[in-house]
Amino acid sequence: MSSSKIIVPEVSTRGISRRSLLIGAGAAALVLASGSMAFAQDPLKIGFVYVGPIGDHGYSYSHDQARQAVEKEFGDRVKVTFVENVKEGPDSERVIRQLASEGNELIFATSFGFMQPTIRVARQFPKAKFEHATGYMKAPNVGIYNGRFHEGRAVHGTVAGHMSKSGVIGYVASFPIPEVIMGINAFTLAAQKVNPDIKVKVIWLNTWYDPGKEADAAKALIDGGADVIVQHVDSPAAMQVAESRGAYAFGQASDMSRFAPNAHLSAIVYDWGPYYIERVNKVLDGTWEPEDKWWGLKEGLIQISPYNDKVPEDVQQAADAVKNGIIDGSLHPFTGPIKDQKGVERVPAGETISDADLLKIDWLVEGVQS
Q1: Helix %, strand %, coil % for the chain, to 5?
Q2: Does the record bear Transport in its keywords (predicted)?
């Protein structure tokens, strides 16, 4: 299956041929025997749109692994197309519209910046079903889904609080949107529970995938005193810099340990497969409705990869306690008191931030430098 940034891969005409009536002696015999014509069911056509390359070993890679899980689960019942390296904005609208016009009945638009384009195309194709990842706009034929990435950040912040000797963490971040901000905040708060003096230095790249910029940011952060690197960008470049400079690092979206066996302490792994399989099933059985799903550690969409042997047993246990507490509901990553960068109390002691407020969060916690 081929793909490109703008041109949607060619779609097989196999489904069209299956619409043809069976003819010939065998078909005639079947008609006489059953009293009706026989039709083969067309496969459900599904489109996936990725903001980065499937080989980024990060976010788009994780979605493409899930796409493959869909194909494995449903076989010939589905016909799947994907397009990678789609820029947020006009490019994405053009690609989504092309997928819809080619008869894809279910389209997964997997990046925040695809939100408005998805809504616009959905209005033009009311019979198609759309699913948009990490956004907040719904429509009669548009559902939304997201991962509680911040839960994994809280687990890793616990590890970093124990492992950092300098007390400075470097954070290579993509865009200042709620998804990324809540991750930075959850990580920082968890690290500060271990070491209240921890500082987290953030460099914003305003891109999801640019290995050169990611590497340069990691170098600058290490030069600025960071001995642990965190990333919310998609290539392993920052991880490789940490490996070469003797720092620690955490992987993004998939286990990146093969790129930095010494530096890689753990990774947040995104497993979108069960969600995609569930949604495809609902289309096939006629029960699909636009929903708002936000899955995390409890549901298994967010997972923690194995810890590096360099992480002491007691630190692993402390991190697992955070993970298990989030899963069973006894621990909320955003429990007050919480102050912002200016020292203003945002969450009183004993209170937590609601999901609705998390999804629009636009402030960073005390101890974050950006």
Answers
A1: 40, 20, 40
A2: yes
**How far apart are the two ends of the chain, measured CA to CA in Å?**
42
Final residue before a domain boundary, out of 125, 147, 169: 147
| Same domain (yes/no): 346, 199 | yes
Residue closest to 158 by CA, chosen among 264, 308, 298, 316: 316
Q: Do 197 and 333 belong to one domain? A: yes
**Per-residue tens of pLDDT for the chain, all 370 residues:** 333 333 333 333 223 222 332 333 343 333 333 443 334 589 999 999 999 999 999 999 999 999 999 999 999 999 999 999 999 999 999 999 999 999 999 999 999 999 999 999 999 999 999 999 999 999 999 999 999 999 999 999 999 999 999 999 999 999 999 999 999 999 999 999 999 999 999 999 999 999 999 999 999 999 999 999 999 999 999 999 999 999 999 999 999 999 999 999 999 999 999 999 999 999 999 999 999 999 999 999 999 999 999 999 999 999 999 999 999 999 999 999 999 999 999 999 999 999 999 999 999 999 999 9
Residue 95's domain comprises 14-147
User: CA of 46: how far to CAs of 165, 190, 221, in Å?
Assistant: 49, 39, 41
Report the CATH number at residue 344. Answer: 3.40.50.2300
Identify the domain boundary among 116, 147, 178. Answer: 147
Q: Which of 357, 337, 334 is nearest to 154 (CA)?
A: 334
- Is 285 inside a domain boundary? no
Number of domains composing the chain: 2
Overall size of the chain counted in residues: 370
